[in-house]
Design a protein that fits this description.
Blueprint: E1 5-6, E2 11-13, H1 20-27, H2 30-33, H3 45-53, E3 65-70, E4 74-83, E5 88-94, H4 103-118, E6 123-129, H5 133-142, E7 145-154, E8 159-169, H6 170-176
Antiparallel strand pairs: 1-2, 2-3, 3-4, 4-5, 6-8, 7-8
Helix pairs in contact: 1-3
C-alpha cells in the first residue's frame, strides 16, 4: 500500500529510491543490523537498492513498510510488516544516532494504529533477540505479550540467536487506546 502517516514529530512514508544511501549508512552498523534477523552485515548500497526494488506500491497491508522521515533529517529508520506463518510480523530499525528519543515507540504506535484500522488481522507478531533490551522495552511498554522463546537466524551475526517471541492482539491494542 502506498500510504503516508503523520505523527506529532515526523512522517511515515513509503520508501523511495533516494533512500538507498541512508538505509545503507545506518544498516552498515553491526549495532543496528546485529539486532535484525533478515539484514546482512556488512550492508552495502547495492543491498539497499535491491531491497527498495521489492517495495511495490500495491503490496497488501501486511507487507507495508514505512520510512521514518524526520523533518530536516530525512530517512532515519524503518517500521513495517511482512507476512509470517501465523499473521503479520512487525519489524523495525532506527539509525544509531537517533536511539533513545522515543522515535521508534511513536513509529510503532502509528503503524499498529494504521494496520489494525485497515485490516481485520486479529494479531501482530514480533519479537527481539534476547540481548535487545531497548526493543523489548518498546514492546513491553506498548502491551506486547511474550509468548515464548525460539531461535532465529541473524544474517548479520551469521548465527542462530535466542529470540523472545511476542504478540499484540487486536483486543489488547484497542483496550490500550481507550
Amino acid at each position: 500500500m502506498n500510504v503516508t502517516l503523520r505523527t506529532p514529530r515526523f512522517m511515515l512514508r513509503p520508501a523511495q529510491v533516494g533512500d538507498a544511501e541512508p538505509i545503507a549508512r545506518y544498516l552498515n552498523n553491526i549495532a543496528v543490523s546485529g539486532n535484525l534477523a533478515r539484514v546482512p552485515f556488512p550492508y552495502h548500497l547495492s543491498d539497499a537498492k535491491a531491497w527498495l526494488k521489492t517495495r511495490l506500491p500495491n503490496l497488501p497491508a501486511e507487507a507495508t513498510n514505512f520510512a521514518i522521515d524526520l523533518p530536516g533529517e530525512g530517512l532515519v529508520g524503518q517500521v513495517g510488516f511482512h507476512r509470517g506463518p501465523a499473521g503479520p510480523i512487525i519489524g523495525y530499525w532506527l539509525g544509531q544516532p537517533y536511539w533513545g528519543r522515543g522515535i521508534m515507540t511513536e513509529a510503532v504506535i502509528a503503524s499498529l494504529d494504521w494496520l489494525f484500522s485497515v485490516s481485520d488481522e486479529p494479531a501482530v507478531y514480533s519479537g527481539v533477540f534476547h540481548f535487545n533490551a531497548a526493543s523489548l522495552a518498546i514492546q513491553t511498554k506498548l502491551g506486547f505479550t511474550q509468548t515464548g522463546r525460539s531461535t532465529l537466524l541473524c544474517l548479520a551475526r551469521g548465527a542462530e540467536v535466542e529470540h523472545i517471541d511476542t504478540i499484540m492482539t487486536r483486543s489488547v491494542w484497542k483496550a490500550r487506546n481507550k
